[in-house]
Fold:
Amino acid sequence: MLIVQKYGGTSVGSLERIRAVAKRVKKTCDEGHSVVLVVSAMAGETNKLIALAEEATKQPEGREMDLLLSSGERISAALTAMCISELGIKSMSFTGRQVGIVTDDVHTKARIEAVSAERLRHAIKEGVVPVVAGFQGITISGTDVTTLGRGGSDLTAVAIAASLKADLCEIYTDVDGVYTTDPNMVPEARKLDKVAYEEMLEFASLGAKVLQSRSVEYAKKYNVPLVVKSSFSDAPGTFVVKEDKEMERVVVSGVAYDKNQSKVTIIGVPDRPGIASILFNAVADANVVVDMIVQNISHETGATDISFTVPRTESKKAMKLAGALARELGAKGTDLRENIAKLSIIGVGMRSHSGVAAKMFATLAKHGINILMISTSEIKVSCVIEEKFTELAVRALHDAFELEGKAKSAPKKAAKKKTAKKAAKKKSKK
Amino acid sequence: MLIVQKYGGTSVGSLERIRAVAKRVKKTCDEGHSVVLVVSAMAGETNKLIALAEEATKQPEGREMDLLLSSGERISAALTAMCISELGIKSMSFTGRQVGIVTDDVHTKARIEAVSAERLRHAIKEGVVPVVAGFQGITISGTDVTTLGRGGSDLTAVAIAASLKADLCEIYTDVDGVYTTDPNMVPEARKLDKVAYEEMLEFASLGAKVLQSRSVEYAKKYNVPLVVKSSFSDAPGTFVVKEDKEMERVVVSGVAYDKNQSKVTIIGVPDRPGIASILFNAVADANVVVDMIVQNISHETGATDISFTVPRTESKKAMKLAGALARELGAKGTDLRENIAKLSIIGVGMRSHSGVAAKMFATLAKHGINILMISTSEIKVSCVIEEKFTELAVRALHDAFELEGKAKSAPKKAAKKKTAKKAAKKKSKK
Structure:
């Protein structure tokens, strides 16, 4: 097999840790596989460099930031190649440029345009273990260094795996997989053996920071089989793969939450066509990332309330903008609610099951938790609630959807699973 | 004027120091000059990376070392560009690749083959202050990063100044110029206003670590006017320029010493043609850098003693080699002397003056200092002495050649200078 292994910052956080990585690589090679490594900067290094840049200037140029930040991965790539060589395995480090990762020129969050990986193919053929500096690429003209945004090394690994048509892309991190919910909050949370790309995307975008969202999108597009595992243990991890029939039997795969949100409301907006467009164009122009949007038309007054959620760090900016827009649109006023949390149930099985949302609402109601906003997609239902109810709600939903009891993809438990599935189906139809 | 300014590691050792550099750049720009910067890695960073590499592996690959070590300069270049921009001056960082510094592929000590500097010319035209990451280049094929060896940022600066036909190349460091001798040893040591490239080469290769030797050679070859000054003061520094007539009037410019040497002797080598060639080829093959070589033929025995000096860190390696060669050549034995120092008087004026060496020997004799080896060049006389006499010898020579009293190139002291010169001439003829 050709395996791409990506190691995050904590996995290469010290020379001792890098040596452990080298040993794992040796083991994989000894088993007869070819390995390509992608590494992040040593833990803390990127933050240290960002702090220096922020001390240097209020508004660092993206181009300069990229030259600065890409250095961290180059350092860990070189050190990792050295540690692997020390074990008697030929190894060489490569920069983003050297493996032909070509991006657009949007510095600090560039998008990958092409991956040639020519030197990697050559190295593999020569029996060399290549170690690629993650997170970086070069502009199409080849003149400048770019970076792929936070968590960009995941994307590097997936893009390289796609280009090399690797059999597997292993993402090593400090957790041992994807759980049905936060195990720190719910001790009964169960590690998932398998999730669909779509589910992983929802988990990732909801603040379960196991995998960078863009890397999951990329993996989905090129059908790269991913597995998320811990570099600190030999546990099998969670596979992130194409949706299969077995998955559909499970209605809900997990419960996610995000406490880092604020809700902004513009009250009494005159109900005219195009109002929402004006509003959210203005918000986008100000580079504020909006998550949920809810609009309700009041039939009595002919006016409407428009609410949206933003990351809590953007509250002030969003409210300032909302105030200006309220005046411009002739609305009555604005409102900010900070202590909220977003709660989501996720599962590709929802596509073929009804009553899932209803069950979620009922569960929250049973525990006296008021719902402030609702938003749904094909494979997700999200509710905004008061932040203080987060733990209670997550535990209640985890329990209601029987996430603890299900053993989704282990073949020997197939019989049990079916029963669980039927039970879930029955319940969700109530 | 177009000025290339190079700042060493201590000059960019912290953000506070980098801000001071930015201010100096602004001042130079405000005076109407165009500036190109070359920066070293922040003080300590390169040593930190070397320590990590040595911890990773006993024998790091040169190619990996170069990727590792070149990162330090990239970081300081980006941060320096940010600090300059913060003062309202357009600034951009550039890597060795981006300014077209092409080298051979001898990793960790690559030689510059060509410098295009195209992007620099463009940036200068656009009113941008370019900040170049020193110490690094790329191979001719463009595939790999190389570094130019310790002190390589000096070479980067000189090479860029040559390519841009800059009016001046300023080397900012933590000392304020080149002295007649080590001021820590001789408080009367005087800063030189001007030295010839050839003299600077001797100073540099003798352990006066103000400027990297190769950068001086390069400056000499392309006639780049250099000035060495302190980034911690506004003192005028020392100009390193083409030899001029005024210089010739001064017989000796300075006294240098090097305590980091050992003397290896092969005793009783049969005196055959080609012996020295066999010996020093073997030494060169073992990558031992030999400095002084002395061979004396004994007319009585028909055998000869061959002595050479090596850096003290190479003593063991050199002695092992000498032992093997002694057996091979049928010599009587070997001898190692570790506690030695090399003492040199340097001056382009020696070319046209006789008696300089004699005066040096007489001075040492007067103080009871035994000479172990002698070596001379056109502009230098070196003696190896016992290490314990170093301070005494340096002071005595500094005094004997009246280095303290001479004010070599300040125009207003021209009259005095002549007298001093005459006196020196007179004395040296004794």
